[in-house]
Each structure stands twice: as C-alpha cells, then as structure tokens.
Amino acid sequence: MMVVMSNLKYGIRRGAEYVKSSEYAAMSKHERIMIGLQVAKC
User: Fold this and answer.
1) How far is CA 42 from CA 31, 37, 39, in A?
2) What does the alpha-carbon distance between residue 26 and residue 32 come to, in Å, rounded to a whole number?
3) Which of 7, 11, 24, 36 is found 20 to 30 A from 17 (Cα to Cα)?
4) What is the Rg, in whole angstroms, of the alpha carbon atoms belonging to the chain?
5) What's the gap between Cα 31 and its chain centre?
6) pTM score, two decimals?
7) How far is residue 37 from each of residues 8, 19, 25, 26, 42, measured CA to CA in Å?
8) How does pLDDT run across 1-42, given as a tens digit for each residue?
9) Backbone angles phi, psi at 34, to 5 degrees
10) Rounded-to-integer distance, Cα 9 and Cα 2, Å
11) CA distance 26 to 33
C-alpha cells in the first residue's frame, strides 16, 4: 500500500512538472508570436 501511495505522489508530481513545462512552452510560443507581430508593425 505504501508503494502505491509513493507511486501516486510521484505520478502527480511528474504530471505537475509536465503541465508547467507545457504551459511554459505555450507561453514562450505566444510571446514569440507577439514579438513577431510587433516587428511586422514596424
């Protein structure tokens, strides 16, 4: 039972790290698009 709980905590922590990294990737992509639009306006 303890092994299951530790595996569950590990899975939740890995999932949180994945969500954070994917959100960061989407945010950086969005920022690149905004910078590209600002450059195009000039």
Assistant:
1) 17, 9, 5
2) 10
3) 36
4) 18
5) 14
6) 0.40
7) 43, 27, 18, 17, 9
8) 667 778 888 888 888 888 787 777 777 888 888 888 888 886
9) -65, -40
10) 11
11) 11
